[in-house]
Amino acid sequence: MANQFIEEKITELTRKGDMEKAKFLKNLHKKILPSQFEKIQKNDKSVMKEMFMPKWVSWEMLRAWADNFQMPGKGRVCILCGEKSENGIDFNEKFICENCFVRLKHLE
Ligand SMILES: [Zn+2]
């Protein structure tokens, strides 16, 4: 998961000894809902009102972050294990994740 912009920001903050901010950025995805994340990606600034971001987090920062970040759990829900996954196959119009698919193949 390459996210150079935020990585550099975290490194910079850590160097300055601003651990609180560095930690905040590391966990940024936990503070943003998937729907809000989508709005950031679409450059919909109205989402700023829905989020509780500290003043030092600028819109530009969020945008750069969202451009490079992949939300965990993005993908489709597997009918077997219920986990979200991006990799898998369609089976009778249902989604089966890669892990379950591999497991099924071993059962055969
Ligand atoms: Zn599965």
What would you note in describing this structure?
With 108 residues, the chain is an alpha+beta fold. The chain has a two-stranded antiparallel ribbon. Strands 3-4 form a two-stranded antiparallel sheet. Helix 1 packs antiparallel against helix 2 and helix 3 (34-41) packs across helix 4. The protein is built from five helices and four strands. Helix content is 44%, strand content 11%. It has helices spanning 4-15, 19-26, 34-41, 59-68, 98-107; strands at residues 76-77, 84-85, 88-91, 94-97. It starts with a helix and ends with a helix. The model has no long low-confidence stretch (mean pLDDT 88). It has two domains: 4-68, no CATH class; 76-107, no CATH class. Bound molecules: zinc ion.
Helix and strand topology:
Layout: H1 4-15, H2 19-26, H3 34-41, H4 59-68, E1 76-77, E2 84-85, E3 88-91, E4 94-97, H5 98-107
Bound molecules: zinc ion (ZN).
Record keyword descriptors for this entry:
108 residues; alpha+beta; 2 domains; two-stranded antiparallel ribbon; binds zinc ion
Q: Give the % helix.
A: 40-55%
Strand percentage, roughly? 5-15%
* Ligand types: zinc ion
Shape label: elongated
How is the main sheet built? 2 strands, antiparallel
What is the residue-mean pLDDT, rounded to a whole number? 88
Biggest sheet: strand arrangement: 1-2
What distance separates the N and C termini?
A: 34 Å
What are the low-pLDDT stretches, counting only 5+ consecutive residues below 50? Answer: none
Q: How many helices does DSSP assign?
A: 5
What structural class is derived from the secondary structure elements?
alpha+beta
- How many β-strand stretches? 4
Radius of gyration, taken over Cα atoms and rounded to an integer in Å? 18 Å
Order of helices and strands: HHHHEEEEH
Number of domains: 2
